[in-house]
Structure formats: C-alpha cells, structure tokens
Amino acid sequence: MPKSKNTFSSWPRRLAQRAVHAGWAWIQRTGSVTAANPGRLRFGAIGEATRLAFPLGTVFGEPWIHLGSHCIIGEQVTLTAGLMPDLDLGPEPILRIGDGVVLGRGSHVIADTSVTIGSDCYFGPYVYITSTNHSYDDPHQPIGKQWPRMEPVEIGPGCWIGTGAVILPGARIGRNVVVAAGAVVRGTVPDHAVVAGAPARVVRRWTPADGWQPPLRTPAPVPIPEGTTPDQLRALSELGEADIERLAELEPEG
After folding, report:
1. Which of 3, 30, 32, 99 lies 20 to 30 A from 212 at CA?
2. Highest taxon of the source (predicted)?
C-alpha cells in the first residue's frame, strides 16, 4: 500500500507555519496603540508606556477617554464613551482609567456617563463594566427601545476583578477590593472586602480592629526581601527541594 503523506510534518508546512506566526507577531506589534503611535485613535489622554493590544475591540468617544500611564489593555477590549460615536459629550472626560491598570482580554467598559477606575486595578478577561442599564417601565414597548437608565460607576484603586465579573450602573467599589469571578456587583462595596455571588455580597472583610473576618485559611505569602536581584531569583528557581531544605537549616534562629 502507498504510504500516506504526512503534510503536518512536511518542511513546506513547517516553513509556512513559522512565516504565519512571525507575520502575526509583527501585525500585533505594529497594530498596538500607544501614545507615540495612536493610529486613528485620538484619546483625551494616554499616559507613558500604556499600550492597547491588537486586535482592538470597539473604541469610540476616545476624546472623552483618559488613560493613565503604564496600563495594559488586552486584545479585543471595548472602550466607549457616550451612547454612540460622534457625539459631543462636553468638556469633561467620561471614562477615566488610572495608572498601572490591566484590563484583561475581551473586557468591556461602557461609559455612557462617568466611569472611573482607580490606579493599580487588575481585571481578568471578559469583565463587563457599564454605567447604563435597560429600563422596562413601559410594558407595551420593546425593552430595547425604552430610554436607558444611567448612573456613574467608581472602582477604587488597588482592586482585583475576577474573570467574567459584571459591574452594574451605580456601583461604588472601595479600595483594595476583590471581586470574585462571575460576581455581579451593584451598590456600594466597602474598602478591603471580598465580594462574590449574583448579586454580589461581602464574604470577607478587613478592618484595623479585627483584621480579616472570617480569618484567612492560608498564611500570607512571604515577600521577596528588599535588594534581591533578578539573578538571585533565577538561581533560587533552579534549586531543588533538598537544596532549599539545607538553606532553611542554615538560617539563624530568631
């Protein structure tokens, strides 16, 4: 019997595959948006070292969008200000994103009225944030044709928003809040809280008087000592379990 030709291992296919991957990497680098290379987009502000990954999601109303410095906006992230493109939204920004914010792939930030995201917030993929919700007051009109309700959204600095979370109009999220994956947040969330569920509720909170309640089930990670160099970290990563145990035995007792 004739041997079947394995096209997946043939050198022309491997060469074509490498060319496709290299070409796509070049397209991603060239198509990304920065302050120095904004392409067609003219944001109200875009900070140093901020980058919008390519391919972009839907972006409009960018004159009313202010992006801080050192932000990472993942692929296919939607950023919109206003109900539709080409509206005059006045002198003030509508969507404000602070410094060091990471927006995960496929996330949506819909700012028909004010949406503010504090610095150093991290969002998992496919998070949905909106300042607008459909109304259904009139039972005789299709819901999509009824005028929507709008309320500002505020997310404090230092928050961690899990994959697939939904932040609804009127949400006020405090500082250093954890929003669990898939949570649906509305209303006010206090500082230093963990919320989960739909609708989201506080499942853990930290206060100066009581610490974390309920108590954390795992010990806090040991921080990297100040002055540790990248070379030292690489060397540690190459150590085996026995080597780490010997080092622990050499540590002076407190």
Report:
1. 99
2. Bacteria
For residue 238, what pLDDT band results from cuts at 50, 70 and 90?
A: confident
CB neighbours of residue 8 within 10 Å: 8
Q: What is the pLDDT of residue 243?
A: 67
The predicted structure's pLDDT at residue 251: 58
| CA 228, chain centre distance (Å) | 28
Q: H or E stretch including 9?
A: none
Tokens of 72: 């990472």
Q: State the chain's mean pLDDT as an integer.
A: 90
Strand partners, 72: 51, 102
pLDDT reported for residue 2: 57
Whose CA is closest to 104, among 80, 81, 128, 82?
128
The 10 Å Cβ neighbour count of residue 128 is 16
Query: 131: closest CA among 78, 95, 104?
Result: 95
Residue 235 host element (H or E): helix 230-237
- Neighbour-count burial of 153, counting CB atoms closer than 10 A to its CB (0-12 exposed, 13-18 middle, 19+ buried): buried
* Separation CA 18–CA 39 (nearest Å): 27
pLDDT recorded at residue 129: 98
Q: What angle do CA 76, 82, 87 make, to 5 degrees?
A: 115
Query: Where do runs of H (alpha helix) occur along the chain?
Result: 11-31, 230-237, 241-250
Distant-in-sequence, close-in-space partners of 228: CB < 8 Å, separation ≥ 6:
none
